[in-house]
Write a structure and sequence with these properties.
This protein is mainly alpha-helical. Helices cover 68% and strands 3% of the residues. The protein has 13 helices and two strands; from the N terminus they run H-H-H-H-H-H-H-H-H-H-E-E-H-H-H. A two-stranded antiparallel ribbon has the order 1-2. The N and C termini lie far apart (52 Å). The N terminus is likely disordered.
Amino acid sequence: MVEAGDPGVELDEDGLPKRTGTWLSASAHIITVVIGSGVLSLGWAIAQLGWIAGPAALLVFAFIIWFTSMLLVECNKSPDPITGKRNYCYMDVIKANLGGVKVKVCGIAQYVVLVAATIGYTVTAGISMVTVGNTSCLHRYGHDAGCHRSNTPYMIIFGCIELILSQIPNFHQLSFLSTLAAIMSFAYSFIAVALSITKVAEGGNHVETSLGGVRVGIDVTLEEKVWQLLVALGNIAFAYGFSIVLDTIKSGPSKIKEMKKATSVAISVTTIFYVLCGVTGYAAFGNKISGNLLTGFELDRLFWLANVANVCVVVHLIGAYQILAQPVFQFVEKKCAEKWPESGFIKATYQIPIPMSGNYDVNLFRVVWRSIYVIIASLVAIILPFFNDLLGLIGAAVFWPLTVFLPVEMYIKHKKIPRFSFTCFCYEALSLFCLIITLVAAAASVRGLIVSVKGS
């Protein structure tokens, strides 16, 4: 923590440490945040939509997110884009520009998404872990050895790891996990693309693809086609979901321009990568592609590389889980401390000596609450271990409220656009269109989860 009075420290106009970021560093940070496990579902999403609608959907989502990101950047400093006060997170921007009930809407949406994502990460990690086990068994004992196992024990193992890591009291002590998670996400994403390209280049697999994706009456029924198409839109929304990097650019008259440039570059690079990953995945496996791209290489000669990628997925998700769960932990702990300030159970800490590591501060409430959270998240994941439907639901939940509705509403108010003007109508029409996409994708994902639970 740097205080405003500390000598030798450069400060910004708000008295806090000076920002030194450039458009290049900011764009690199955004790309790191965006590329994650959602990329593994894009081949399946392309298969549901086909060669034309699939890449087109990726481009449309990219454009919408780019456009609303530009609006958000304009509202980043308030009340004036050049001299306004500094905002540190998305919630600060909402509070500064909108206030009132929309701040609560933002908060609820953010925490719901964080909780849902930790459940989704548990499912994804379990799939990757069981894939490594199945693949190793198949190549050791043969294809008739009955190697396909349940995901449940692996999700329990993942939950136990998170149970331990969740007891780290300070979020900033997890910075190493964030860095490691970013490295792992790039690693498995590039490996997935490389494996798909290799499979296509080898030929001989005779996969079937089509302009319209999976074929009605051959691969799926008409009803299944419609529902899976909508789930695919939710999966694409999940892949593009990210928190805009706010106020990392150094101050100056060109700051807004630099942040727009950083966001544009990041979204362009990510979109190229996503289209490449989705298209190569669909080309490699065709209409029979699995929901998670990395589960399709069990019988390939490069299975060991796929195993490396799946291990990278698990390591990435171990860190990513904590990055998402820690704000939830701290929010509940803060609210409970404010409500029961005299409670010894909530406030008291005890020191436990750890050899060669000093003393570890234990708070009983923190231990109990965080343990309950991880256990419940793991149980829900075990009950709903359905990768694409779960990602579709999370993507739909975050897309409209956080990515479209709030930035649009902020920009209209920030620029004082008349409510019944043509410009306002266009912005609201975009928001309504995205709301419809969100609702139908969410409905399809919920329906898919229900059908999957009944059939399991």
